[in-house]
Amino acid sequence: MPTALVTGASAGLGRALAAALVRREWTVIGTGRDAAALESAAREIGFTAVPGDVTDPAHRAALARSEFDLLVNNASSLGVSPLPPLARYPLAELEDVYRVNVFAPLALTQLLLPALTAARGVVIDVSSDAAVEAYEGWGGYGSAKAALDQVTAVLGVEHPDLSVYAVDPGDLRTAMHQRAFPGEDISDRPLPETAVPAFLRLLDERPPSGRYRAADLLSIHAPATTLNGGAARPEFS
């Protein structure tokens, strides 16, 4: 039975991905900072909860005691809300965004690389359209996701025995998205579950390592091997 580690598994896309993998009879370990929410999700879905902060080296080391076939780096930080322009972005807050969105995923990947490579496994880093398009107010989060995209791309080149993907899941109805638009009604955004089949397609078809949009992967007529590239419309995750 394959084993997956999903970060940020207590809610949103991470929870939806964990549920889909459990339904496929994967062994899933989920982690997240909100212990109560994580343990509630684990009881409902059927995965193993290991609460903690992925920016904490001790927590990452504890996670790395298990061996995995799949790592999903989903945990993310939006940063300051409402979203400030870069000219006024508090640098201490920006450092935290990079710690969560770039350094922690890379550090966790480094720890798990030997087992993942032996298993010819998969690394999925959750990206965003803000990584490839310039949107006012999104300089902090978007630049961190752009850095994560480059980390993902280079890891894919350096580790050809792995499948390494950056995935833009699209504009989803999540708590983080709501924080990006405080006071606005985001009920018209799709639920996170709608993006899950795109991730499953990557696992099933194993196209070349690279950056993919969920919207493209969900197009049943498009071969996954042609879908590497950027995004064409504003989508935030």
Give structural notes.
- The chain is α/β, with parallel strands linked by helices and 237 residues long.
- It has eight helices and seven strands; from the N terminus they run βαβαβαβαβαβααβα.
- Helix 3 (57-63) runs parallel beside helix 4.
- The longest helix has 28 residues, at 91-118.
- Helices cover 41% and strands 13% of the residues.
- It starts with a strand and ends in a 20-residue tail after the last helix.
- It has a seven-stranded parallel beta sheet, with helices on both faces.
- The chain is globular and about 45 Å long.
- The protein has one domain: Rossmann fold, CATH 3.40.50.
State the gist of this model:
The protein is of the alpha/beta class and 237 residues long.
Task: Jot down its keywords.
237 residues, alpha/beta, seven-stranded parallel sheet, 7 strands, globular, oxidoreductase, SDR_fam, NAD(P)-bd_dom_sf, Short-chain dehydrogenase, Sc_DH/Rdtase_CS
